[in-house]
């Protein structure tokens, strides 16, 4: 996990990761704590994890990005290293209004990492660059 999250969120994700490493499942306690800490993003993020919608994209140089297939069918690129998502909700709710510290896509990335539920995709440097540039073109 990254230190971009509040300490209580970091600790919860560590506990979830430990539970999944030991038993391959979580508990209702984790669900309630997720809802308490992450609010309305928790349930949709868990749905994305259940649907295996999170893919870790890596290049030979070690650069990593995450792609999350949103509930709308659109693919969003997330960066856990800098705590950023290309979805409109992140721009509005997190950056403009400061109503939340993450969107459901970033939370799904953190949860899929903790639960070992990330899809893996190795790509060339050129392919990763194309993925990243495609996001800029969509926004422009």
UniProtKB/TrEMBL annotation:
SWIM-type domain location: 76-114
Keywords for the protein's UniProt record, in alphabetical order: Metal-binding, Zinc, Zinc-finger
A GO biological-process term: double-strand break repair via homologous recombination
GO cellular component: Shu complex
Pfam families from the UniProt entry: SWIM
GO molecular function: zinc ion binding
Taxonomic superkingdom: Eukaryota
Entry protein name: ZSWM7 protein
Source organism phylogeny: Eukaryota, Metazoa, Chordata, Craniata, Vertebrata
Name of encoding gene: Zswim7
């Amino acid at each position: 996990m990254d230190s971009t999250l509040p300490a209580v969120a970091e600790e919860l994700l560590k506990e979830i990761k430990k539970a999944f490493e030991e038993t391959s499942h979580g508990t209702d306690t984790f669900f309630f704590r997720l809802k308490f800490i992450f609010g309305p993003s928790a349930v949709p993020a868990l749905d994305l994890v259940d649907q295996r919608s999170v893919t870790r994209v890596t290049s030979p140089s070690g650069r990593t990005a995450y792609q999350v297939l949103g509930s709308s069918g659109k693919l969003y690129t997330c960066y856990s290293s800098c705590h950023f998502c290309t979805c409109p909700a992140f721009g509005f709710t997190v950056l403009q209004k400061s109503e939340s510290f993450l969107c459901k896509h970033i939370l799904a990335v953190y949860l899929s990492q903790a639960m070992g539920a990330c899809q893996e995709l190795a790509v060339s440097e050129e392919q990763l660059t194309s993925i990243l540039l495609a996001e800029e073109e969509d926004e422009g």
